[in-house]
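Lab notebook page, bench 4
Experiment: in silico fold of construct C2
Operator: M.H.
Input chain length: 283 residues
Purpose: comparison with the prior construct
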Amino acid sequence: MNKNEIQALISLLEDPDHDIYSQVRSKLVQLGVEVIPDLENVWEMNFDSLIQNRAERIIHEIQFNFTQAELKDWITNPEKNLLKAWLLISRYQYPDLDQASITTRIEQIVKEIWIELNENLTPLEKIRLINHILFEVHGYKGNVRNFHSPQNSFINDVLNDKKGNPLSLSLLYLIIAQKCEVPIKGINLPKHFVIAYTNEELYAGDPVKFYINPFSQGTILSRQDLERFVEKEKLELKTKFFCPCGNRAIIRRLLTNLLHTYSIQGNKEKAEEIQKFLQLFKT
């Protein structure tokens, strides 16, 4: 549709006939993200609450469909870039997310670490360097006070507040470390996500050299520390709890966390949408 046809369609949002509105909504949703600027303009320039409400709902439906389609593509993509998926889910909550600015901020942290890295550093020394830059220089820390806030799961909120939950701080750590070519993997530990320094040559046996807890400023942990945690939580000790997991599992965990926080808040609409995103991971 050309611009005039789109404007003519949008003008019908004020029609009181629900059947006409239903047809208009369906057509606009089919057109997708290209009509969002026009809908936003109508919302800003119009003081009719009916038109504003209808435009807002259509915009959200378009954004949801777009996120769902992009997430489905990400799942089937062999690369499964962590930063891309985190940006995608964050943009679902914040449609005007400045992705370029976020990427620049992350690259700045990577640059500060990269300058100090060298081949003579031991694995522990490399982790201490990352810990120093991330937690001491930039001041990132665990959000203990608002542990279950959904904002802990969105990359822009984590970067702006410099706080996060165990998974989001681990995600940030993973993205930065991997850009610095430090072999860090995610560990899908129940109730408290952590990461690990791995040795690719030992994947036939135990690939983990040691574990790292970004929620507590990058504390180094042993396998025994994690086993004690699992036992304290009265859970069965399973090998998979201590082994590296893939990016698909990490993003699924991120969505599961969001589903939990929205459910706690009683935000039924958001919880239902997150549940639909999670359904994609079952295919």
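Observations: The radius of gyration is 22 Å. The chain has twelve helices and seven strands.
Next step: discuss at group meeting.
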